[in-house]
Amino acid sequence: MTGPFRRIIGLALPPRCGGCGTPVAEDHRFCATCWSSLRFLGPPWCVACNRPFAFDRGEDVVCAPCLAEPPRHAGVRAAVAYGPIASSLVLRLKYGGRIAFAETMARHMHRLMPDDADLLVPVPLHRWRIWSRGFNQAALIARSVAALSGVTHDLDVLVRARRTLVLRGLGGKARVKAVAGAFAVCTPERVRGRSVVLVDDVYTSGATTDGCTRVLLKAGARSVTILCWARVLSPTASD
User: At CB < 8 A and 24+ separation, what contacts does 35-38 make?
Assistant: First the structure.
């Protein structure tokens, strides 16, 4: 698109903040108010699960829950803490069809890519859920992260073999029970020996990603790191 046409479209349809819709200078940007409301995550954090610490506790420190029960995954790397602005993007992407927000999320997620990442794999939706929604938001995010990072993505190797209940509102044990046996790796050789990055929009209790991690490791993946847009840090919060 040439410069004059781009300027005309920009005047008629200016880029808008993903959080509140206020016009902003460029696509995928936030206004000052929404930007300051986001809590961006990163070190210092637990070396096992990447849950952020309030202060630096030194190198290789593991949080109490991980000491009690070490996770299967190689960490949960979330761009932001789940909150009003973060959830607004998630809901407008999933239920409002605002698929451009997948790239907005990916732009903040790819800074947390593990150095040894070999393959990006999205958390899958059941085919009936994709049919009703029209897309898998995790796959859209994975595709954008792949474009930004140069890491290969595979949208089909991990599948949801059966339909599951909607997890929103369920407790931790109920979530684990709901997703038990729900996932499968269709072609193990595509993940065997590779460091897999499992992509999702929100990390809540970990039931879904743990189910995915289990089958990926069983199929021969060297490691599985979860990469997501937002992480619920309050034990009482839900997506």
Answer: 37/83, 37/84, 37/85, 38/80, 38/81, 38/83, 38/85, 38/86
Greater pLDDT, 207 or 152: 152
Mean pLDDT of the chain: 87
- Determine the pLDDT at residue 8: 42
Q: Tokens standing for 46?
A: 């637990």
CA dihedral 44→209→29→19, nearest 10 degrees, is: -110
Q: Which two tokens stand for residue 8?
A: 């005309």
Q: What are phi and psi of 152, to 5 degrees?
A: -60, 145
Cα→Cα distances 112→50, 71, 72, 144, 173, Å = 11, 19, 19, 14, 29
Rounded CA-CA distance 196/222 in Å is 7
**Each residue's pLDDT tens digit, 101-111:** 999 999 999 99
Residue 92, Cβ neighbours under 10 Å: how many?
17
Q: What is the pLDDT of residues 194-224, one digit of tens each?
A: 999 999 999 998 989 999 999 999 999 999 9
Q: Is pLDDT at 137 greater than 60 in this prediction? A: yes
Give the distance, in angstroms, between the CA of residue 194 and the centroid of all CA atoms in the same chain: 19
List beta partners, residue 225: 197
* E-state strands within the chain: 76-81, 119-122, 152-153, 158-160, 183-185, 195-203, 223-231
